[in-house]
Structure prediction request, 925 residues.
Amino acid sequence: MNLPGGPLSGRLAAWWNGMPPRVRTGLVIVGCLVALSLVIPLLSPYDPQRGTGTDPLSPPSVPHLLGTDHLGRDVFVRTFVAARLDLLLAAVGVSLPLVVGTLVGSTIGSTRSRLVQYLGEVAIEGINAFPTLIVVIALIAAFGPGANSILVALFLTAWARYAKVARGRALTIRDIGYLHVARGLGYRWPRILAVHVAPNVFPTTISYAVSDFVIVILAIAGLSFLGAGVQPPTPEWGAMMSEGRLYLAQAWWLALAPGILLSITAVAVSLIASGRTEDAFTQSAR
Amino acid sequence: MPSRSRPADVATTDARRAHAARTAAQDLLAVDDLTIAFEGGAGRPLTVVEGVSLRMSAGGSLGLVGESGSGKTIFCRALLGTLDRHGARVVRGTLTYKGRDFGRASERVWRRIRGSEIAYVPQSSLASLNPVLTVAQQLTSVIRLTEEARGHGRTDLRRRALALLESVEIPRAEQVLDQRPIHLSGGMRQRVVIAAAIARSPSLLVADEPTTALDVRVQRRILDLLGSLRQRLGLALLLVSHDLAVIEEMCESVAVMYAGSIVEMGRREQIMSDPKHPYTDGLLSATIGSDGGREPIPGEVPNVGAWPDGCKFWPRCPLTRWLGGGSPRPECHSGERPSLRVVVGRSSACLFAEAMDGRPTIVAHGDGSGTP
Amino acid sequence: MTDEIRGCGIDVVFGHGGTAVHAVKGADVVVGSDEIVGLVGESGSGKTTLGRVLAGFQRPTVGEVRLNDKEVASARRDMSRRTHREIQMILQDPYTSLNPSQRAWECVAEVLHVCHGLSAVEARREAVQQLGQVGINPVQAQHFPRQLSGGQRQRVSVARALAARPRFLVADEPTSSIDQSAQAQVLRLLDVIRRERSLGILFITHDLRVVRHIAQRVYVMFKGEIVEADSTSHIFGHPSHPYTASLIEAIPGRRVRAEIIDTRAQA
Prediction:
């Protein structure tokens, strides 16, 4: 049987037009950033990790659009390689807690077992009470600085925040009609969670994740700036700003470029977050 | 140069003009070609109410029958001047109350007649009462707005509130005064809302599905209350409902609304026993039914923005197919929207209203009209 | 082959001691194959609770549910998963009874896949066809619940319930939240499936009008007790309990009341 569906371009166009202009602006900016961060490292003739022939600390000019740093490396290519890294780290730093937190929170919120509810709430509230920074410091002390330590530390503390959001949402649908029906049809727990609870909780937690992305990317850059995160010579915005700090008087472009791009990213994602992402997923406004 | 008219012509014209003046003076509410639209996405306005015309006289009762998607709720909002809160506005036509056109009036002008001239009873009493305030507080805040209550003290206001509750037949009114809405039953709450609505002695009461959320016996009592209030206070009642039986019981005149337009309008007895529009006929079969039970109308009400051309009912209409030998008559599905015209003493928007007798597809009514 | 589901001496009490609510008191109901039985009462009458007991969603405090004279649920025992499937429930609110993230065909296909082991492809094809039988065309079958009207959603709920091949259906006020002509469609649909599949349907409602032409028997419930149980024509013709009489008296519409009085006079 031939089942008709809408034309893809029609639905995409409708979705795009349904967004407020500021959200569209944010999406375009992020899209460009991602594209540039992938393309520029491929197109640039310069190696981000090595010095070029040019003098170190030379100002922006035609071959070196953002000048060179204190080791003679091209700042332009480094900035966008750093973009790729930062965006990736932040995406990972948000996605893992999102998935784990949503699944755990959904289970706790929709279960009828008092034991699971109790244990789950204790775990979530307990972990949320822990200051993230302490965990980060502990992990760095144990395993040394680096992107991995940051990600692990973030994950250990962040999943509980998502779980709390997910639990709250799951509670609102726990006694709702279609869940009763699912139980009445004899569906088992894994199916109920995967098909009936989680898909209706994810729009809420994804919305939360978009806002969280800004916090995470700033945390990564911040920790790297302080020397606890990504280590030189790997290009990373925070690390670049830290190096550039020493040369602010002579070569302001070293710190400014990554700083501006970081700010642009944060603002662009905030614009997307301001657009009620949850509703975009569920189109709940009738 | 106009020819000199004969005395008889002049007399008839005068008589006609006098009659028109009298009728116009009697009309409490006169709606003409009212068209309401939302600011749609992508800049195109979305019409939700199209070309609605109706009349109400002082103390009369008109029932507006419409299902969801008929535009009846938006129409009620237009009668209260709250369209702009919902992003809609009148794009065509007039809404005349006591001789003055309010269709495009400002909020300031509407505030003078909203509540004091035209009052509203909505479907959900919980949503229209403040959960934090007591019944007394809410009623006195309305009573304070009336002329007679200017400058009166709290005891006097409370006395008036008590009188109001008694006029809507609330038992133990003294106790109810100090309760909050959440502690009252649905029927009691609805009575409080009605009390607040009549507090300023309005001339027109617009009731939008006032009993739909209530149990049958409570519904009966509320309907009886509305009827008795109408008689006692000389209120005009515009009752909006999807329930044809409720409208049949309460209203002397009936207007049937489909997809934003009125398709038939006239006196209750005519509409109920001898409908001249296939939608009215279908509604009758589907709601009140005949001895054989309810007969559904096939298909669905078209969504706003996706209205068919010509007569909006044509995709679901058995009459057009019967007349066209199986396929719908071209006059029905192309061309302009049919407008209301007088057919057998009432108004119908069906191009083939006269053919409504003797058609085979529509179920027979309880009183035997129509053919099986 | 006629089946029968029976609720015997059902009591349902919520809470304890002074604040206990006696929702259902000593109710005896029976629904057989190929019949529609109305359960009529106003809010607080206990009709929904009784319906949920029969459908296995609520354990009775006292009493038992018997399917073909075999006990399937009681104060000590929840209904088994298998029996649960035999008695499906249609809920009142069409806006919360469908999973918003599932298309219409998906929720029916899921039942076919889980309960009858159909493959994904077969289940989809069969689901679209079964939706067609309740008046949902293939285009509408692709829609999410938010794109469907209240009446359409109720019909999807019916299709989902029927896909489990139940022997009984408990319909809890399925027409109360939808428009009149959509109501007629749902009522017609229930009558058709009753005949075609010999289902037994318990139709819970607060409005006697609704069951007048499709129910063969009616139970009238008031404050937790069944006050009258009789054939539909008797209930309307000669109501023996004053509460029933007051329910009939409350029916709006002069013509309907005139018809009822006429039929009464003829009887």
In short: The CA atoms of residues 237 and 261 of chain C lie 8 Å apart.
